[in-house]
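Deliverable D5.2: sample structural annotation.
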Amino acid sequence: MLTMKQVTKVYHTEQVETHALRELDLVVKEGEFVAVTGPSGSGKTTFLNIAGLLEEFTGGDYILDGVNVAGLSDNARSRLR
């Protein structure tokens, strides 16, 4: 099961702060299928990278199969994948 609560991703540069995801709430239960759609720049790839443990989020909670993935090391994220 995948649960995201208020997940946020912000990219920072010296001059710009870009909010790729804003307070995303999502629950996907075992056996369910999900389609991710939206216009270019809406955060689809960022969401998939976070869901696949390839990228870290900047706020909120993400629970994957009962494990809170916030703060996991790269090795722990790889094992969980």
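Annotation notes: The chain has a mean pLDDT of 95. The chain has one domain: 2-80.
The annotation will be released with the project's public dataset once the embargo ends.
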